[in-house]
Amino acid sequence: MRGFGFLIVAVGFIVMIAATTMDVSVPSGLGRVNNLGLMADRQNYTLIGGVILIAGLLMVIFGRRTQAAPESTFDTRPCPLCAENIKNAAVKCKHCGGDVGKASPQAVPSLRFGWVARVICAGEEERVKVSDAIAEAGFPVVEMLKVGGVGAGAFESKSEAEKAADAIEQRLGYPTTVMFRDKISGDYS
């Protein structure tokens, strides 16, 4: 939005400069005289350029800067004492002040069946590496038996799994797909 605002500011500035340098005189038998129609056009173009310039400045000032990554719900957990959301790495609750201890990745609650962000691995070494990376990122780890991979989840909704898949792809760099984990497929222990 801000980049577009800079473009609009430039266009408004150019229109205003062109309008102020516009010749409003016409030749006549007595020399050159000002034309009221051209003077009105110059005034209109100056006003239009000014409005465009102001609109661009407002876009630059109030436009969103680069979006900060929203605080992920996967990086938080409920406090065992007051049930308010706290960071997984927190050892003391910011709400009640109680000592809560650092959460391990396995302490993050997970469903037995649901949506999973899946990473397919080539071998056992890669599977262990990906599993550790997913756990360090704060996601519950799910082993995928048939496909030889690892997943983050399971999540209640597909959108939660898609957020986890996006986070794994962006933060960890692993290609990820989203699938539903069920008890029928045999992919899970």
The tally of structural domains comes to 3
Number of helices: 4
Number of strands: 8
Strand order of the largest sheet: 6-7-5-8
CATH topology call of the largest domain = Alpha-Beta Plaits
Q: How does the helix and strand content classify structurally?
A: alpha+beta
Mean pLDDT: 79
- Bulk shape: elongated
Query: Strand-and-helix sequence, N→C?
Result: HEEHEEEHEEHE
CATH superfamily grouping of the largest domain: Sporulation related repeat
Name of the CATH architecture of the largest domain: 2-Layer Sandwich
Q: What amount of the residues lies in strands?
A: 15-25%
CA-CA gap between termini = 48 Å
- What is the top-level CATH class of the largest domain? Alpha Beta
Most strands sheet: 4 strands, antiparallel
Fraction of residues in H or I helices = 25-40%
Q: pLDDT under 50 segments (min length 5)?
A: 105-109
Q: How large, in whole angstroms, is the Cα Rg?
A: 30 Å
Keywords: Membrane, Transmembrane, Transmembrane helix
Transmembrane segments: 43-62
Organism: Pseudomonas rustica
Protein name: Zinc ribbon domain-containing protein
